[in-house]
Amino acid sequence: MSWMKALPASVSDRILADAYTTIHDAHAVVARRGRHVDSWIGVASGLLKVVVDFESGKSVLFTGIPEGSWVGEGSVLKREIRHYDLVAMRPSRVVHIPRATFHWLLTVSFDFNRFIIDHLNERLAQFMATVQTDRMIDPVSRLCRSIVGLYNPVLYPTRTAVLDMSQEELGELAGLTRQRTNYAIQSLVAEGLVQPQYGALLVRDLEGLRHRSANGA
């Protein structure tokens, strides 16, 4: 947990004592919409998605939560019910920081407060970008924005040039079919921006992807 590095040992010791982990199979619900939020959630290994299923049958996927990332701080802060489902996209191990511990951290650590403020600010920007991306028709632009979003240094601090996601997972995050995902990846390969690897994607030019994303239609 990278945010713990700036905390005093006594504070870190309490976090480690209070935290607990859960194990989830692929497609299992980690946290359910409509339930009270009892913990702040981090991904120790695996991959989660933030999704809302409506009664009409429509499903909206907001973002993926890869290894080393955290989610749910807004709901923990406001002591409200969860407005989305957290679902495992692959077998995942999840870390829970209990709500009481989370609020205690806010009272004792300025650095943790700063981390949460930055996190909330970046999450808001991410969701606004998701709404904009959802209106895009071009599959290349949709995929490009999804990839760029996973390289937010505040939300996803452990990202490397190799994006450990399958073509199927990338397509699901971008809201694309398998065929349109393959087309989009091949287009980005032709532009020299990415290179497929077995079960992963090598990002060769992140700045180029950002430029492609910003100029998508």
Which descriptor suits the 3D outline? globular
Structural class by SSE content: alpha+beta
Task: Output mean pLDDT.
Answer: 87
- Any idea what the radius of gyration is? 18 Å
Q: How many strand segments?
A: 11
Quaternary state of this entry equals single chain
Poorly predicted sequence stretches spanning 5 or more consecutive residues: none
Note the total helix count: 8
* Strand composition percent: 15-25%
**Terminal Cα span:** 37 Å
- H and E string: HEEEEEEHEEHHHEHHEEH
| Helix proportion range | 40-55%
The strand line-up of the biggest sheet is: 1-8-3-6
Question: Main sheet?
Answer: 4 strands, antiparallel
Keyword list:
alpha+beta; four-stranded antiparallel β-sheet; 8 helices; 217 residues; globular; 11 strands
Question: Overview of this structure, please?
Answer:
The protein has a four-stranded antiparallel β-sheet. The longest helix is centred in the middle third of the chain and has 25 residues, at 110-134. Helix 4 (110-134) runs antiparallel to helix 5 (139-149), helix 5 packs across helix 8 and helix 6 (167-174) packs across helix 7. It has helices at 9-18, 73-78, 99-108, 110-134, 139-149, 167-174, 178-190, 206-214, and strands at residues 20-24, 29-31, 39-45, 47-53, 59-66, 70-71, 85-88, 92-98, 162-163, 194-197, 200-203. The chain starts with 8 loop residues before the first helix and ends with a helix. The radius of gyration is 18 Å and the shape is globular. With 217 residues, it is an alpha+beta fold. The model has no long low-confidence stretch (mean pLDDT 87).
